[in-house]
Write a structure and sequence with these properties.
about 180 residues
Length: about 180
């Protein structure tokens, strides 16, 4: 089947099917977000760059799975946004479009925040160009990236608050509150 035919069939789908699909993607967003918080946030030791760096390096696979889960959650929430837009478009197209816009902006901010989680692996990876820095500087830089990620996703004015993935754990929230 060609893409236009598939899109035409999807446009003709019943609202119940779209609502069920949105519910499925919402559930996937919650599950991947929870896994991402548990897997990606366990290695962070607030205020201790050396311990955080050693935890990340000791559990790289789990840290990467947390990042992947967060990113999958963002993509699932994009699907939710598009499905909810389609469901609410008959009620008010302009309001539905505005809500979809804010949700997609929030997801973009969340995706960028997720990329900040990936940065410590690059900094701690031992690439030759990083020899210009001391070990302590690299560890502090890795913790800085994780702190920026937490702060980017915990601002009250940030539309990303509407997306479940990439939210900081309760211990990291306490750490970011302590540093404000």
């Amino acid at each position: 089947m060609s893409t236009p035919v598939v899109m035409e069939r999807w446009a003709e789908a019943s609202p119940r099917l779209k609502a069920r699909a949105a519910g499925f993607f919402w559930l996937m967003t919650i599950l991947t977000g929870a896994f991402g918080m548990v897997a990606g946030g366990r290695q962070i030791v607030p205020g201790d760059a050396a311990a955080t760096a050693s935890n990340i390096l000791a559990h790289q696979a789990l840290f990467r799975w947390g990042f992947t889960a967060d990113l999958v959650g963002v993509f699932c929430y994009i699907a939710v946004t598009l499905l909810v837009y389609e469901l609410l478009k008959p009620v008010s197209r302009s309001l539905s479009l505005l809500a979809a816009f804010f949700s997609l902006v929030g997801c973009a901010v969340g995706a960028l925040g997720c990329l900040l989680q990936r940065a410590p692996l690059a900094v701690l990876g031992g690439a030759p160009y990083l020899r210009a820095f001391t070990v302590e500087q690299l560890q502090a830089l890795a913790l800085l990236f994780l702190t920026l990620r937490i702060q980017a996703n915990s601002r009250p004015s940030c539309p990303r608050r509407w997306c479940a993935p990439c939210t900081p754990t309760s211990s990291s929230r306490a750490s970011s509150a302590k540093h404000r």
